[in-house]
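Need residues for this backbone.
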């Protein structure tokens, strides 16, 4: 999937369907499995309760030759940004989706069409349809340019016409405590260069025997990931979008969704859903599964009506996104205009419920404001330009984005199909950014205030005299939509559900009555109070909370000393990396769940990323790092690979406590801490003096 990021009125498109079609979706080829092969990915009916989805991430570093094409060092700059975002996105998914857990190590399948040149074709032979001739050019399995390690793959065999097979490659050890493998690559690819604003693209790679996704790949565009205009929250939401595609929200996978009459836990009488999508009488493609249809009807306020949810078809008849006219702001629409405008909405979670593969925590959904309670006619091309809904606009004027976080211009894009909405401006449109305000001493005739609690309001306020020294009164404006109002930024504070006050520069707080126009002391003109947009349940218009990490993300590198002139081929480097990692795990006395994406370079530098996976039991990463550092300094690791011995020489680490730290933020944090210490000290001194004064007085009975 190709997720495109745009600012302001710029439009972009998503190419997930094109990308997913380039990947062969593998599922276990039972006819190719040797009789003694393990079946760890099979689900035993009625054996287990659903558990939070366990996602294991593997970061695949680009080869040295590619780094020569990276003069700006974007691969290194983007690495920690991407991995931190992946960690937060996977943690969030764990709180939303649950599955029947994979028992034993997770092993992925090999593609027989790749490793096998011919199969036995005689139905009367015992080994009919099994591999009779190997492909000498077979180089392993890959997905979106990522080579899957042999350790994660099942083995394969060559079968004679009769009798047992000759094992060519045994099963790898697999990956423990994992339900989904996510491969992460940061690169300069042709797709990245073709689309100037790509953050990442992704695809599902493999399925289990019930067609549930088992593995996927996200490729981040290095040159764009390093952009300072891209916030950490943007990368997290982009990652979440990509991950949801790989987990099943894909036109390629809709037809594989399951229905199980007895529920997720009891896998009896399960079957592929007969109808997931259909076309309505106007030709619009709809997703029609029951939970999705009910969720949309509830959102539009028409419960009891059977609805399908329209899918976006800008790129062709196969679609993996919601129709933007109807579900603007959903995490799964085809365009993305920033984390602050995007929601993990109930209708998207309903889709995962209907896939039949997941149990969904619906309480984790974020309320979708766009079109809420607007009825059956909302979002139609035939009604969006008739002023029947104030979510849409007409003309090309200036106003407020529907979440009221930003000023906006009335415009359209290809996904809106001629419908128009107030889209955030390209520059300095955010009312919630204090730095967007006018410099001190600059004339401010409209009384604007930029602040974290400021929102956009339609108004024509001015501190200057109007022509003829006349002031419009609310009763003199029969239709505010036709008045000459535009978007301005003013402070707001909630007083109760759906009620709030506003403040203009130099004015007192004034009660704002939703749906009414008010006057502000000291200003001519009017301010319109939007109805149903501000101070609603679930803080719809508040800024999304930063998904802060709860522990360090650490990149640990160990230099190794080996025999003189010793060289390793790629497979040997992978084996040595695993051996060093196992020695590190043994030395630390903790679980493998702390360590991610081990690798080793030609110059014998071992690198591993350390963070505490969800469900991982043990000390914090900071404590683990301190303990490992001390023990490695006292006694270096000694690792044997084949007949060679390797010893650790030095330790380097790169850690982050913040996702985008700056000197200003750091100094501010230190300053606040010092101020807090001073205040605590002052309060403590005052309390002590007061206590001492009380003690010398007469004691109470």
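Answer:
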């Amino acid at each position: 999937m190709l997720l495109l990021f745009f600012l302001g009125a710029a439009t972009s498109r998503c190419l997930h369907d094109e990308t997913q079609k380039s990947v062969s979706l593998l599922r276990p080829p039972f006819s190719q499995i040797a009789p003694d092969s393990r079946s760890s990915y099979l689900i035993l009916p009625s054996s287990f309760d659903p558990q939070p989805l366990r996602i294991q991430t593997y970061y695949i570093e680009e080869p040295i030759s590619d780094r020569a094409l990276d003069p700006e060092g974007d691969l290194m700059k983007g690495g920690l940004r991407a991995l931190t975002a992946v960690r937060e996105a996977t943690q969030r998914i764990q709180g939303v989706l649950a599955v029947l857990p994979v028992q034993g190590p997770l092993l992925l399948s090999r593609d027989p069409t790749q490793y096998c040149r011919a199969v036995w074709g005689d139905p009367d032979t015992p080994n009919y349809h099994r591999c009779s001739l190997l492909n000498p050019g077979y180089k392993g399995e890959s997905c979106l340019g990522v080579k899957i390690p042999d350790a994660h793959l099942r083995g394969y065999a060559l079968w004679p016409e009769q009798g047992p097979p000759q094992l060519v490659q045994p099963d790898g050890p697999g990956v423990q405590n994992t339900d989904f493998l996510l491969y992460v690559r940061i690169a300069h690819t042709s797709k990245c260069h073709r689309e100037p604003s790509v953050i990442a693209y992704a695809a599902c790679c493999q399925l289990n025997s019930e067609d549930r996704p088992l593995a996927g790949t996200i490729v981040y565009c290095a040159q764009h990931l390093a952009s300072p205009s891209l916030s950490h929250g943007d990368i997290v939401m982009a990652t979440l979008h990509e991950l949801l595609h790989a987990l099943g929200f894909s036109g390629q996978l809709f037809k594989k969704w399951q229905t199980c009459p007895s529920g997720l836990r009891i896998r009896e009488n399960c079957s592929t859903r007969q109808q997931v999508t259909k076309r309505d009488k106007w030709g619009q493609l709809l997703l029609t599964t029951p939970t999705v249809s009910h969720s949309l009807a509830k959102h539009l306020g028409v419960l009891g009506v059977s609805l399908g949810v329209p899918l976006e078809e800008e790129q062709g008849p196969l679609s993996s996104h919601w129709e933007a006219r109807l579900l603007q702001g959903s995490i799964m629409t085809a365009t993305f205009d920033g984390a602050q405008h995007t929601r993990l909405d109930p209708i998207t979670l309903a889709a995962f419920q209907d896939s039949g593969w997941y149990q969904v925590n619906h309480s984790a959904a974020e309320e979708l404001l766009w079109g809420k309670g607007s009825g059956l006619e909302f979002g139609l091309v035939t009604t969006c330009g008739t002023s029947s809904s104030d979510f849409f606009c007409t003309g090309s004027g200036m106003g407020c984005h529907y979440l009221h976080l930003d000023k906006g211009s009335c415009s359209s894009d290809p996904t809106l199909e001629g419908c128009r909405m107030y889209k955030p401006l390209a520059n300095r449109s955010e009312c919630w950014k204090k730095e967007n305000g006018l410099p001190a001493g600059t004339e401010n005739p409209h009384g604007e205030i930029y602040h974290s609690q400021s929102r956009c309001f339609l108004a024509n306020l001015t501190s200057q005299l109007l022509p003829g020294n006349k002031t419009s009164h609310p009763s003199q404006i029969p239709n505010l939509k036709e008045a000459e109002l535009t978007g301005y930024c003013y402070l707001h504070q909630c007083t109760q559900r759906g009620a709030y006050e506003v403040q203009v520069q130099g004015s007192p707080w004034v009660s704002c009555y939703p749906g009414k126009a008010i006057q502000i002391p000291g200003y001519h003109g009017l301010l319109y109070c939007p109805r149903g947009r501000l101070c609603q349940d679930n803080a719809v218009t508040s800024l999304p909370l930063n998904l802060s990490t709860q522990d360090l993300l650490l990149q640990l590198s160990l230099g190794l000393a080996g025999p003189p002139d010793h060289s390793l081929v790629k497979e040997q480097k992978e084996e040595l990396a695993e051996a060093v990692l196992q020695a590190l795990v043994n030395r630390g006395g903790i679980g493998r769940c702390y360590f991610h994406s081990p690798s080793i370079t030609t110059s014998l530098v071992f690198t591993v990323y350390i963070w505490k996976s969800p469900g991982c039991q043990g000390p914090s990463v900071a404590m683990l790092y301190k303990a490992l550092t001390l023990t490695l300094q006292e006694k270096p690791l000694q690792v044997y690979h084949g007949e060679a011995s390797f010893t650790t020489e030095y330790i380097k680490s790169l850690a982050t406590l913040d996702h985008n730290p700056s000197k200003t933020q750091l100094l501010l944090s230190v300053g606040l801490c010092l101020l807090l210490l001073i205040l605590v000290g002052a309060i403590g001194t005052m309390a002590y003096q007061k206590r001492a004064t009380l003690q010398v007085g007469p004691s109470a009975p």
